[in-house]
Design brief:
173 residues, three-stranded parallel sheet, 6 strands, flat
């Protein structure tokens, strides 16, 4: 077999659809745009969900309840297997993980997951650890340090006074 014998697989290459080349081409006259109207015009694009000025379905249906997804904690997952690229005895924190490209993007923290095998003794600092990851790190003689979450939950304020602080007025005898 030579280079000139190589051909693409059957169906891998398809000719371009040529619009407006006469009725017999199958794509003549309206060129696949249907009849008249807004979508037949050039430069037309209607946003998704637009119903021509009618109240869109997404706005017609009632919205009830509460969705906690927006308020949840979103961790960037990092598997143990990926930590083998660090030196033996190294301290692995968020900055180190981001510098080697293991944790990219915005999040509330980093979670170490136990997928794969760890071959080095490391001190890993992260916001959360899975139970299997913690066990594997400590089995190699390493340490797991939990960092406080970036967005700490709001502290509950005590509006009521403690019992000891309340003082009763002296009784008149």
């Amino acid at each position: 077999m030579r280079l000139h014998d190589l051909k693409p697989r059957h169906g891998a290459r398809h000719r371009r659809k040529r619009l407006g080349q006469g009725e017999s081409s199958g794509h003549g006259k309206t060129s696949g745009r249907g009849g008249k109207g807004q979508t037949a015009r050039s430069g037309s694009s209607i946003r998704i969900g637009f119903e021509g000025g009618q109240m869109p379905l997404i706005r017609r249906i009632p919205k009830r309840g509460f969705n906690n997804t927006r308020h949840g904690t979103h961790y960037l997952p990092v598997n143990l297997e990926a930590l083998n690229q660090f030196e033996d005895g190294a301290r692995v924190d968020e900055a180190a993980l981001r510098s080697v490209g293991l944790a990219n993007g915005r999040s509330d923290g980093i979670k170490i997951l136990g997928d794969g095998d760890l071959t080095r003794k490391l001190t890993v600092c992260a916001h959360a650890f899975s139970a299997s990851a913690r066990a594997k790190i400590e089995a190699k003689g390493g340490a797991c340090e939990v960092i406080a979450p970036k967005h700490a939950p709001p502290a509950k304020s005590e509006t009521a006074e403690p019992e000891a602080a309340k003082s009763e007025p002296p009784k008149a005898s």
